[in-house]
Automatic annotation (TrEMBL), chain B:
This is PadR family transcriptional regulator. SUPFAM superfamilies: Winged helix' DNA-binding domain (SSF46785). The chain crosses the membrane at residues 12-30. Pfam families: PadR (PF03551). Residues 19-89 form the Transcription regulator PadR N-terminal domain. It comes from the Bacteria. Keywords: Membrane, Transmembrane, Transmembrane helix.
Amino acid sequence: MNHFQTPPSPPRWATRLLHWYCAPELLEEVQGDMLEEFYFQCRHNSVAAARRDYVRNVLGFMRPFAIKRKSSPSYPILPMNMIGHYFTVALRQVLRHKAFSAINVVGLAIGMTCCMAIFLWVADEKAVDNFHAKGDHLYNIYMTVRSATDVEGVYNTPRRYDSVTHVLIDDAKEAIAEVQGLAFYATGYSMPWGKAETFQAGDKIYKLEGSRASNDFLTMFSYPVIAGDPKTALKDIKGLAISRKMANLFFGSPEEAIGKSIRYENKRDFEITAVFEDLTPQSSRRFEFLANWDAHMMRGGMEWSSNNMEATFLLADGADPDQVAVKLNKLVQPRLDKGLPYTMEIGLQPYRDQYLKSNFADGKPVGGRIEYVRIFSGVAIFILIIACINFMNLATARSVKRAKEVGVRKVIGSPRLYLIGQFFGESLLLSFFALALSLLLLQVLLPVFNTVTGKNLVAPITSIPTWITLISLALITGILAGSYPALFLSSLKPVRVLKGAVQFTQNAIWFRKGLAVFQFGLSILLLIATIVVSQQTAFMQSMNLGYNKENLLYFTIEGELSKYDKFQAFKQKALQLPGVRAIDRSSEAPHAMKFIVDDNDGAAETGEEDNTAIKWEGREKGEMVGFKPTSVGFDFVKLMDLQIVEGRSFSREYATDSADAFLVNEQAVKEMGMKDPIGKWVSAWQKKGHIIGVLKDYNTNSLHERIRPLIVDVKEYEYFGVILVRTEAGKAKEVLAGMEQVYKELNPNYPFSFRFVDEDYNDMYRNEQVMSKLSNAFAILAILVSCLGLLGLIMFSAEQRTREIGIRKALGATVSSIVGLLSQDFVKIVLVSFVLATPIAAYLMHQWLNGFAFKIDLSWWIFGIAGIAALLVALVTISFQAIQSARANPVESLRSE
Amino acid sequence: MKRVYLGEFEEIVLLIVAVLEGAAYGVNIMHEILDQTGRSVRLNQVHASLQRLEEKGMIVSKMSDPTPERGGRRKRIFSITAYGSTTLRDIQQVRATLWSVVPSNLKSFTA
């Protein structure tokens, strides 16, 4: 038996815990009480029970009254009684320095307005195609076509080339379990400007643009159907779904329209089976009507006008699109024609992504409009950053004066946290002022912005999420802008400050200059971008396309006009109208030739082993050139003002021309590898003939595309495609009035609807035009905001050096020498930022220009102009203040000291 | 009359402090409560209550000399203040007044 039994002791960890949390002034008595109780329990109970009890007591004391406060003396986190005071001080600061405050608030407001406008636009862009209820499960097919020389991505559906109507995936729903629905939609090779088609009901005739869709289309997509049954609307071959607008146009109301018959292209009758709500801009697809898909696939009964189609899959919940794509490929590959010179691979892309990401790189959808969304979001944020930098810079500059205040507050006993809160409070106050101002600005500027972007944006000021966003925007801006003064000023040592020893360290000065350089750099970057974008836009619009696009209008050949004698009659009568210079036909509109002869077209008919559609003398076996073929009338070359570089144009004097003659362009000669092309034979579409002339290259599409090989023949007795009319300058209106008369007389079943080539041409660059206008606006704003910042800094600098200026003047310095003295530093800032911004801008603009096949050179003068412009604007801003300070009477400034 | 707010538990603790005259400290008070009222309370409750009472000025405290059974730690001895005892008396007065007007049947029942 051990005599010296160790006395029982409470658990060590519990005691340690107690020591850790318990307030020191309470520890002794609490610990004492607990020990006493422990021994008491040991005596009257078991040791184990005593230990349990002890632990319970230790834990029980974890209560507010006993817990150690982290720091003492304690003060509340939010000093309620000081808030009013801070507000008053902030307001006084704002009002006392009116110019500084105005610069801050206006700068921030501009930044915020840009941000808001841009984010409205971005939200609108992102909302496109995002309204479909089943949107999460909708996927579109895209194909990657790879040949030896080319990788191309397209939204299209694989077909069997020998029979255009055979879609290779039409049984995908049965073959692949994950596919729950499959809808086709015809896109047409002349989209997106479309080709209006003629409808007639009673005596009403209108041309409308629409498309064809398969039966599942209306149930898979959420285009609201207001009359008729969306499930069966497109089931029958006669079925036609129309928009509310179209129903009103023809029948007065959607309800009236159902079941009515409507005549299509004067060829075929459709029955209205459904009416859908007019499409909003939220839909990237535009159509006034949807015809039954089978009617489209049928080549006889209905004018077949499109062989491009979009296939959309509705996938089951949780289906993996990549796996479905693999299965689709397995389904399609064995069905493809044998011996194709290219491979084809199918991918699936969420339907809603198609609008923003429709450019392909290496067969994957990557860019597209999303790039504009990204660029402008970036620009908006840049401008906001520039404005925030102004704020920080001004606050830092003024901090010499505020430093004394900080010193006094610290001496009186304000903790650092309160000072930080106070400075943040001030910047938040200003940023909320700015928010209010920017909301006003937005209301004023939104209509202008809408005109430029072609949108119909409305500020959703009634919705709660908007306010949450706006308030967080103001908060973020305020915190960002206030961060430097709050963190820096609050760290100052009161003793040094009150001794007057605060001179800014070299670091702080560098920081301020660095910020100024950064913001000016951004502004110069934007300025360069603006110049480049507008140069490029102007270049594209004024570029010599190789033909004259002015005063040129066109309309589709249809109805009676496709007959030889009616066409001739029309031509004769129209040519007699005053103001008409020339008329002729072409199989495609000259500025939007979408049709390219595929390497393998025509294979079925020839049945030859080497089944190429277009062949030429000296062609090596297997050599392929993708041609744009077109057939025209005899006067086409003259009408279009095309240039012949070699040989001659078509002429009626040669009896053989309509059967034997071809024109090709220089590009075709190059790609065919021909020397002395005149007189060599070519064959296209089983028509064999000789090259009689070479056309100088001209653009057949937008300038994003390179010039393609072109082959032209004359077809005197076939009339399809478009009629082109060249009018005399300024006579378009009269010509059109007269021509409509003639048209109605000869082709009464079709309304006269025409377009101008130059307008269409401009339409092709709408994105670039919007980009150009917006970047103009943004560059101006950025420079403006930066200059506001510069103005603030020079004001401050002048104020600080009042005494120096006074003394200099008193000693006889001239105004100009003082202006020079004050401006020096700032000019340096602008120069440095120019040097830094230039290479970055050059790189970025080079990237952007790469998207164009025809582009301007990045010449040095673009950068020069941007630099000089920035410098000039900065100098004007600086001198505004500098001259004022320099001219001030030195007596005033010196007396006040 | 100025109302004095005293919780029921606080009142008991205050009474016990008065009862224990000179020996009122944490553990002791806890044990006394158990003995007198049959109510088992936790140490931290007693401490919290004592602290509140001290804040209200009902009791004052001073540290005692160290005692061996507490590992050499001192006790905080509480004693009731004049204000504390007035309060207790006021409370009793209110109760007595109320009892005097309680209907006789209830009175006889409890008696």
